[in-house]
Design a protein that fits this description.
about 160 residues; seven-stranded mixed sheet; globular; alpha+beta
Length: about 160
């Protein structure tokens, strides 16, 4: 099944909405089993394996993260963190029959209790078409000031 650019863009908006609404299990179901969520530490970093990253999680780690966020006994999440994505219309940079690459600039706000922080970032999604549905093959999130000292990022920009 071929997807239109508008359908791809809607997919990116829907993913952000799932995260904003805390629908983590639904969000996790968007991913391919061999997918990776990468947040580089260095500006224009090219290697997630030999260079330290802020985050480089496979499905096992993403499931643990979601389990922790959904957990009733996760004391570090009482009250739970909340987030809000303000995203610019995604660019569809590549679109073949089975692979789609998007680039989305956004502002991400995360808050819990009296703490709130804002990140400016760019997300690159590599999407695959599997059984007629769009799935996330990989997601890279580059924080504009990735070299700054951060507190804990609890959720998923």
């Amino acid at each position: 099944m071929a997807f239109s650019k508008d359908q791809v863009i809607d997919f990116i908006y829907n993913e952000a909405r799932m995260l904003d609404e805390g629908r983590y299990d639904e969000w996790l179901s968007l991913w391919l089993e061999d997918g990776h969520y990468w947040m580089p530490l260095d500006y224009k970093q090219t290697d997630p394996h030999l260079v330290t990253s802020l985050l480089y999680e496979d499905m096992f780690m993403l499931r643990l993260r979601v389990e922790r966020l959904n957990g009733a006994r996760t004391f570090s999440q009482k009250p739970k963190s909340r987030c809000h994505h303000v995203i610019q219309r995604p660019f569809v940079d590549e679109m073949t029959e089975d692979r789609i690459v998007t680039n989305t600039s956004m502002h991400y706000v995360e808050t819990r209790l009296d703490e709130q922080f804002l990140l400016a970032l760019t997300a690159v999604h590599e999407l695959a078409v599997v059984d007629g549905a769009l799935r996330i093959a990989n997601k890279r999130v580059d924080i504009l000031n990735s070299d700054a000292a951060f507190g804990n990022i609890q959720l998923l920009p």
